Amino acid sequence: MISTDGISLSYGSHKLFEDVSIKFVPGNCYGLIGANGAGKSTFLKILSGEVQPNAGTVNIPADERLGILRQNHFQFDDIEVLKTVIMGQPELFQVIDEKAKLYEKPDFSEADGERAGELEARFSELNGWEAESNAAVLLAGLGIKTDQHALKMRELQDGQKVKVLLAQALFGDPDILLLDEPTNHLDIAAIKWLEDFLAEYDKTVIVVSHDRHFLNQVCTHMADIDFGTIKIYSGNYDFWYESSQLALKLQEDKNKKLTEKAEELKAFIARFSANASKSKQATSRSKQLAKITLEDIQPSTRRYPFVGFKPEREAGDQMLRVEGLTKSVDGVKVLNNVTFQLDKNDKVVFTGSELSNTTLFKILMGELTPDSGKFTWGVTTSRSYFPKDNTEYFKDSGLSLVDWLRQFSGKEQSESFIRGFLGRMLFSGDEALKHTSVLSGGEKVRCMLSKMMLSSANVLLLDGPTNHLDLESITAVNNGLTRFPGTVLFTSHDRQFIETIANRVIEITPSGVKDDKLTYPEYLEALLK
User: For residues 326 and 373, is the Cβ–Cβ distance under 8 A?
Assistant: First the structure.
C-alpha cells in the first residue's frame, strides 16, 4: 500500500497539487489521468521520492518495495541486459555485487568468511538462486531474445531498451509498481504480454498512459487529477469517461425524475459490469460498480475539444489507385513496389515501418517524388493532410492563431469565422490571439486539426494524429473520425483509436504491401498467432 498525507507542490505561482491525501491499496491498478500539464508524471515522481513536495508526506510500509519504470534510456548503457533487470531489486543486486567482490579478494580473511555467510543467507532469502532465470522469463515475455541478455544496454535499439527497463521495474515481485507510459515504443505482442501480466498482478499498480485500450484492460480504478487535487473512481477509463458524461447529462437535466436517473445509472453500470474483461478483475470490478450511487459519479470539469470534419462534396467511386511505388531514403529502400487500391468510404490504418508510412503519405500528398511507380487520385477527391512533423507550418512565429489559420481559409476571411474553428479546439477569447511561437506540441496539433476541419476535404490523411495529445483530445479526434463520412488514411499507435476507426489494415512490408482487407482485430489475431 502507498498513501499520501497533505501533499502540496507549486512551481512559482503555478500550483500543481494542494493538500492531496490519497490511498492506493493492493489488488488494484490505478490509472492516473489528467489534462496535459496537470502533473501526472510529477505525482509519480513524488511517490517515488524523486521530487520533494513543498508540504506533506508519502507513506510506504517499511517492508514494501517500489518497482519504478524509469524513462532514462541511457542510464544503464554500460551494463549488461540481464544485470540491468536484476538491478530492479536493489538489495539483491547489492548482495550479489558484494559477494562477488569478497570472493575475488586474494587475502580472504576469517571476517570475510563470516560476512560471506551472512550475504549467502540473505541471497537465499531474496530468492537469489532464481534471479537470473526470473529475469530471463520477463525478458522473454517482452520479446528480448536469450542471445541479447549478455549485450550491453547501449547495443540495443530504443524500443528494446524500454522493454528491459520495464522488465527491471517488474523484477522481484515489487509491492508497488509505478509505471509512466509503459506502452511507449512497445510492439503489440509486448503490450499484450504486459496487459496479461498486470491483470494477474495482486499488488498495487499506479500507471500513467495515453493508451486508452491499455487503461481499459488493466485498470480497476481511475485517479483523476483536476484542479490540484486527485479523486479516485471505480472502473476503467471508458467507465470513468462515460460516467462523467452521464453525470453531466443528469446535471443539465435537473427536472428529470430521480427514479428515471437511477434506472439510467443502473443500466449504465450493468453494461460496463458485463464487459469486465479480465478474469481475476471481473468479479471484484462488478461488485465495485454495483455499489455506485448517483452521488458517486461526478461530471468532469475537463474541457473537450470538438472535432468535426464535414466534406464540402461527396466523392465518387474512384478514390485512389497506387501502382508499384518505390522509394529509397538515404540509400535505404523504404517503399518497394507498393500497390493497392482504395474504395469509397475506406478508413485504412497503415502499419509497418513509421518511415515507410510517412514516406508514402508524403508521396501521395505531392511532397516527395517516387523513384518509380505512380498513383492516381479520383477526380472528385479533395484531400487534407496531417503530417507527422508540422514544423514547416509554424515557421512564421510572429502570427497570431487567428492570422495563422486565416492563411488556409480561402474566401471566408472574417475573424468571427476563423475564431469559430479555433474555439472548437479550445482557443477562445485571448487564447486565439497568442502567437504560434509559444504553442506547445499538443496546441500545434490542435491548430492542425482546425486547419483540416476548415478544408472541408472528403479524404483525410493523418500521420500520427494522436501524438502529443492528452486523453481528452484523443477522444475528440477519435469521435470526429468515427463520424466522418469520407475516406481516411492514417497511422497510430493507439489501439482503441485504430479499432474504432479503421475498417481495413494495409501493412507496408519490405517486399510491398500485405492487404488481406482485414479489420484491425482480425489483423491482430493473425499477427499474434
Answer: yes
3-state secondary structure of 371: coil
Give the pLDDT confidence of 456-506 residue by residue, as tens digits: 999 999 999 988 888 889 999 999 999 999 999 999 989 999 999 999 999
Q: Residue 418, Cα to own-chain centre: how many angstroms?
A: 31
Nearest Cα to Cα of residue 305 among 439, 428, 483, 399: 428
Cα separations in angstroms, 7 against 3, 23, 51, 54, 222 = 10, 12, 12, 8, 19
Rounded Cα distance between 333 and 510, Å, is: 8
State the CB neighbour count (10 A cutoff) for residue 26.
14
Return the C-alpha cell found at 522: 482480425
What's the CATH number where 14 sits? 3.40.50.300
330-367 burial code (b ≥16 CB/10 A, e <16): eeeebbbebebebebebbbbbbbbbebbbbbbbbbeee
Please list the alpha-helical segments (H only) found in 13-151. 40-48, 81-86, 90-104, 110-125, 131-141
Separation of alpha carbons 314 and 456, rounded Å: 10
| 39 in Cβ contact with 17 (< 8 Å) | yes
Domain end, chosen from 208, 231, 254, is at 231
Residue 460 domain-assigned (yes or no): yes
Cα-only R_g, the chain: 26
Does residue 47 contact residue 206 with C-beta atoms inside 8 Å?
yes
| Torsion (CA) 326, 328, 334, 339 in degrees, nearest 10 | -10
Closest CA to 463 of 439, 445, 437: 445
Same structural domain, 221 and 350: no
Domain that holds residue 16: 2-231
Three-state SS sequence of 456-491: CCCEEEEECCCCCCCHHHHHHHHHHHHHCCCEEEEE
Residue tagged 514516406 (cell numbers): 359
Per the structure block, which three cell numbers stand in for 355?
518511415
**Could you tell me which of 265, 290, 281 has the C-alpha nearest to residue 217?**
281
Cell matching residue 106: 586474494
Same domain? 214 vs 324 = no
Q: Mind listing the pLDDT tens digit for each residue in 1-53?
A: 999 999 999 988 888 999 999 999 999 999 999 887 788 999 999 999 999 99
Weakest-pLDDT range from 129-143, 256-270, 419-433, 447-461: 256-270
Q: Is 94 helix (H, G, I), strand (E, B) or coil?
A: helix
Residues 6 or more apart whose Cβ sits within 8 Å of residue 333: 326, 327, 510
